[in-house]
Amino acid sequence: MISSGTVIGTYIALCLVKTSIPELIAFFHSFAGLVATLIGFENFRHMINASILDISAISMVCYTVDMGFTLDFVQLSLGATLSGLLGVHLIMTNGGADISIVISMLNSYSGCATAESGFMLSNLSLLFSVLGYGMAAGKAQHAVAAITKLLRKHGCNFRVAVNQVAGRLSGHMNVILGGALAPYDIVLEIDEINKDFRATDVSIVL
C-alpha cells in the first residue's frame, strides 16, 4: 500500500508544473487529514461490521424473491460485494498477531457456506441435466444414471435434456443412456424441455 501510494504521488507530481506545487501539497495534506479522521471510526468498527452484515443479509433475502432477472442480479451482486467488503474490513481492523485467528474464522465461514449449499441442494425441486457428446467422450453415462436414480429417490423432479445432433448419429445419447439403465421416461429432447428452463433450480451440462 505504501509503495502504490508513493508511485501514484510521484506520477501526479511529475505531471504538474512547478507553479502548481503549493496546490498539490495542500491536496496531499487533505488526504492526511482524511486518514486522521478515519482513525476515529475505529471505535465504531463493530457497528460498521454489523451494518454491512445486516444489509448483505437483507439483499440475500430479497434475492430469494423472484423480482426479475435485473433486480435479482443487482441483489446478488450487492450481497457478494458487501460480503467481500466485510471480509476486508474484518482483516484491516485486526493486528498482525491476530491474523491467524482471522484466517481460521474465514475458513470456518467457507465451511459454513459449503454446508449451507448442501441444504440448498437437498431442497431442490426441479433439476435438468443437459447432455451432449461430452457425456459419451467422458463415459459418464453410468454416473448420470446413478445421479438420476439417487435424486429421484429423494423426491427431486430430475429430467434429462438430450441434444439430438450430438454424437455420431441421431439418438446416440439415448442409446448410451439406455445402456446405462437410465429411466427412459425422463429423457427428453431440447425442444421439448426448453419451456421449463425458467423454473429450473439447477442445470448440469455435460
What class would the helix/strand composition place it in?
alpha/beta
Mean pLDDT: 78
Strand order of the largest sheet: 3-2-1-4
Question: Main beta sheet: strand number and arrangement?
Answer: 4 strands, parallel
Query: How many strand segments?
Result: 4
**How would the global form be characterised?**
elongated
Gyration radius (Cα, Å) is 27 Å
Cα separation of the termini: 44 Å
Count the helices. How many? Answer: 9
SSE order, one letter for each helix or strand: HHHHHEHHEHEHE
User: Regions with pLDDT < 50 over 5+ consecutive residues?
Assistant: none
Number of domains: 2
In oligomeric terms, what are we looking at? single chain
| Percentage of β-strand residues | 5-15%
- Helical proportion? 55-70%
Enzyme class: translocase
InterPro entries: DHS-like_NAD/FAD-binding_dom, PNTB-like
Transmembrane segments: 24-41, 53-74, 86-106, 118-136
Membrane topology: Multi-pass membrane protein
